[in-house]
């Protein structure tokens, strides 16, 4: 009994106690408890204590606790940053595939309807002003719809909002087909479609966070929808042009009504029913202004809004610049396609190669570098060099992936639909303002200097915004400590 070792330390073959120092039999249980090692260090067969230096029995528990390793270090696996899941991982989510298909249909319908409606108004009035106004009305109502109707994205179940928006667009487009609809009615219906669009887009963005989570899958899903939108600018007008050679303008508009109906059907059948996000269904404009009063959200929105204000300048002035150079219409097409091509390439590369944390870190450098290629216009470059500058500028649009991740993390979930609707409306509105401002400036200043000046002004404004946001972030960090 006296020589029996403590149960927690069996077997310890290398330990041979000195018989001369063996305690009495009555003290054996106390010694067994005192010498029992901390559980975190069992087994420890390689440790053979020196009998001559053994501490007193009373000090054994303290020594065991002191020598026990920190729990956080048992074990310490190697920390490897999570790689980006890749675009294919997004398509493995069943609901996203339905949303993607609906987005493709509704976007093609919208682009073709804009082109067909512009042609129809010109055929009816022979007025270039009214024809161009038809296209411009695609931007202006975004501001009203995005502010007055933003709350709908959170106050009602998202699937219902998406389906109803598609049905409203289909109904408005169907009324455009009627021969009895006057020109004023066509313009009013165009405004209705444009006013509903930001609600639809904001709700869909918020629904993506529900479907894909608010991590990197959401960022890649948003990127895919943007890539489709940029591709529609390249393909949609071509499809519309071919369609208008086969059917009259009203027939092309009728086809777009069908695409909106198919989009509504896909969303109804392919997405899950989810409750409304906002617990309070009576929130009005005050909730919208409260988002803008939040310095962090306001700063991120400005980073979304400022680049589109200036990025449309070379596109809006592509025709005058081609005329200034005296080049062919093929060169004009090259200038028009360069920026979307660069944007698509930049987003695909960033989404497929870069890790999520890297994309977030690159937001500021890409924003600051994005408009530097515009400065090349100061040298009045030829169409090939100008197109290269636009491709490079478009490629820096990959900043949106990191900015999306920061934005979805900053906005409260119950106001996510409202915030994304407001952000979308602002982006579309500033594009219209940017086009108008570019045209106005080109009335007084040579086109190439307008583009170069836009690049310089955008870089300065973005530098100020990024510095302000960085200071606000440091303040938040200090106050949270």
How would you describe this protein?
The protein is 70% helix and 0% strand. It is built from 22 helices and no strands. The longest helix has 33 residues, at 447-479. α6 runs antiparallel to α21, α9 packs antiparallel against α10 (216-246) and α15 (318-325) crosses α16. The two termini are 58 Å apart. The protein has helices at residues 28-35, 60-67, 87-91, 94-125, 128-136, 141-148, 152-155, 158-177, 183-212, 216-246, 249-270, 285-293, 295-311, 313-316, 318-325, 329-353, 356-361, 363-369, 383-395, 399-410, 416-442, 447-479. With 481 residues, it is mostly helical.
Q: Which helices and strands appear, and what pairs or packs with what?
A:
Blueprint: H1 28-35, H2 60-67, H3 87-91, H4 94-125, H5 128-136, H6 141-148, H7 152-155, H8 158-177, H9 183-212, H10 216-246, H11 249-270, H12 285-293, H13 295-311, H14 313-316, H15 318-325, H16 329-353, H17 356-361, H18 363-369, H19 383-395, H20 399-410, H21 416-442, H22 447-479
Helix pairs in contact: 4-5, 4-9, 4-10, 4-11, 6-9, 6-21, 8-9, 8-11, 9-10, 9-21, 10-16, 10-20, 13-20, 13-21, 13-22, 15-16, 16-19, 18-20, 18-22
């Amino acid at each position: 009994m006296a020589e029996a070792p403590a149960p927690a330390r069996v077997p310890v073959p290398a330990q041979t106690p000195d018989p001369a120092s063996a305690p009495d039999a009555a003290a054996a249980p106390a010694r067994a408890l005192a010498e029992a090692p901390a559980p975190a260090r069992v087994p420890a067969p390689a440790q053979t204590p020196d009998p001559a230096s053994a501490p007193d029995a009373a000090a054994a528990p303290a020594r065991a606790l002191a020598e026990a390793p920190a729990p956080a270090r048992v074990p310490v696996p190697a920390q490897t940053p999570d790689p980006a899941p890749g675009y294919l991982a997004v398509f493995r989510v069943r609901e996203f595939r339905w949303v993607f298909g609906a987005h493709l249909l509704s976007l093609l319908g919208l682009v073709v309807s804009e082109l067909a409606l512009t042609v129809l108004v010109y055929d009816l009035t022979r007025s270039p002003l009214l024809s161009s106004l038809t296209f411009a009305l695609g931007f202006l109502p975004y501001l009203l719809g995005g502010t007055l109707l933003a709350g709908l994205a959170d106050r009602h179940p998202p699937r219902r909002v998406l389906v109803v928006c598609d049905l409203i667009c289909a109904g408005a487009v169907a009324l455009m087909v009627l021969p009895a609809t006057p020109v004023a009615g066509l313009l009013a219906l165009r405004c209705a479609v444009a006013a509903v669009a930001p609600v639809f887009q904001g709700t869909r963005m918020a629904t993506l966070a529900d479907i894909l989570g608010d991590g990197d899958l959401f960022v890649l899903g948003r990127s895919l929808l943007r890539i489709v939108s940029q591709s529609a600018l390249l393909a949609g007008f071509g499809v519309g042009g071919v369609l208008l050679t086969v059917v009259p303008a009203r027939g092309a508009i009728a086809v777009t009504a069908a695409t909106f109906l198919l989009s509504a059907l896909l969303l109804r059948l392919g997405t899950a029913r989810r409750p409304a996000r906002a617990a309070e269904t009576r929130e009005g404009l005050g909730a919208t202004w409260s988002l803008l009063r939040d310095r962090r959200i306001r700063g991120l929105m400005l980073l979304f809004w400022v680049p589109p204000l200036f990025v449309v300048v070379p596109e809006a002035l592509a025709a005058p610049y081609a005329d200034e150079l005296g080049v062919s219409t093929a060169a004009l097409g090259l200038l028009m396609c360069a920026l979307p091509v660069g944007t698509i390439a930049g987003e695909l590369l960033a989404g497929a190669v870069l890790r999520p944390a890297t994309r977030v870190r690159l937001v500021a450098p890409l924003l600051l570098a994005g408009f530097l290629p515009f400065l090349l216009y100061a040298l009045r470059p030829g169409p090939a060099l100008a197109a290269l500058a636009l491709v490079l500028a478009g490629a820096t649009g990959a900043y949106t992936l990191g900015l999306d991740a920061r934005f979805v993390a900053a906005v409260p979930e119950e106001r996510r639909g409202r915030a994304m609707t407001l952000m979308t409306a602002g982006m579309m509105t500033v594009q219209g303002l940017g086009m108008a401002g570019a045209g106005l400036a080109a009335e007084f200043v040579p086109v190439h200097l307008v583009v170069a000046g836009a690049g310089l002004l955008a870089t300065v404004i973005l530098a100020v915004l990024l510095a302000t946001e960085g200071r606000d972030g440091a303040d938040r960090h200090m106050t949270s400590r």
